[in-house]
Design goal:
The chain has 217 residues and is an alpha/beta fold. It is 30% helix and 25% strand. It has helices at 35-50, 69-86, 95-103, 144-147, 155-159, 175-187, and strands spanning 3-7, 12-18, 23-30, 59-63, 90-93, 109-116, 119-127, 130-131, 136-138, 152-153, 167-168. Strands 6, 7, 8, 9, 10 and 11 form a 6-stranded mixed β-sheet that branches. Strands 3-2-1-4-5 form a 5-stranded mixed β-sheet, sandwiched between helices. A hairpin with a 4-residue loop joins β1 and β2.
């Protein structure tokens, strides 16, 4: 097994290689505006660090969000392209699940990432491997009663201490965590989600109201 894992659902552009036993190379850079610019060089970098060529890959793991439309599609399109070009399977993993796995907490807790617009993408977990709720997007104040008293991880939790007073790192997901989680589940025969985006809401960019189509005379 040689899995290439990547995620662009948060400001972190993160890539890792997993050889079936553990992560053998990884790269993470935080830059919310340069996902498309940074992702392919990061893939080249981790392959070079491991001394491997791209045709050695046996599978792709990609974070499916939830996340902003523009950043999320960079990772998903790249994963699909590699999968088609190499003829290898592409597996999806919820980005929140990757954060929960990296947190390695024992009891119930919350994962929350920044959804912008003063909202968070979030879910509740029984432990680092077990999600209790579907991913959702809400204003922190609107879910205060559902998360009260629970530890929380992720950039969204750190942004809103009134709602998440017990928030701590990790702030962003890493592809290393995604790769370890995916490899663990694949080894156990668990079917991973299809590599399709969890957008949860419409893109920030919208066609202006009263838009007039200009047609030639």
């Amino acid at each position: 097994m040689l899995l290439l894992a990547l995620d662009t659902a948060t400001p972190a552009v993160t890539v890792a290689l997993h050889d079936g036993d553990d992560v053998i190379a990884s790269s993470s850079q935080v830059d919310a505006r340069r996902h498309g610019e940074l992702l392919l060089p990061a893939i080249d970098r981790v392959l070079a660090e491991a001394g491997l060529k791209v045709d050695a890959l046996t599978g792709i793991v990609v974070g499916i969000g939830p996340g902003p439309y523009t950043g999320l599609r960079v990772g998903l399109m790249t994963a699909d392209t590699f999968g088609l070009a190499l003829g290898v399977p592409v597996h999806g993993v919820c980005t929140l699940d990757g954060l929960a796995y990296a947190a390695d907490l024992e009891g119930p807790f919350v994962v929350a990432t920044d959804a912008r617009r003063k909202e968070v993408y979030w879910a509740r977990y029984a432990d680092s491997r077990t999600r209790l709720t579907d991913p959702a997007v809400d204003r922190p104040a609107d879910i205060a009663g559902q998360v009260a008293g629970l530890p929380a991880v992720g950039a969204g939790a750190l942004l809103y201490p009134d709602t998440f007073p017990a928030a701590h790192e990790p702030e962003y997901v890493t592809a290393a965590a995604l790769a370890r989680l995916a490899a663990e589940r694949l080894a156990a025969g668990v079917e991973l989600p299809a590599p399709r985006p969890l957008y949860l809401r419409r893109p920030d960019a919208q066609v202006p109201k009263n838009y007039k189509v200009v047609t030639p005379k």
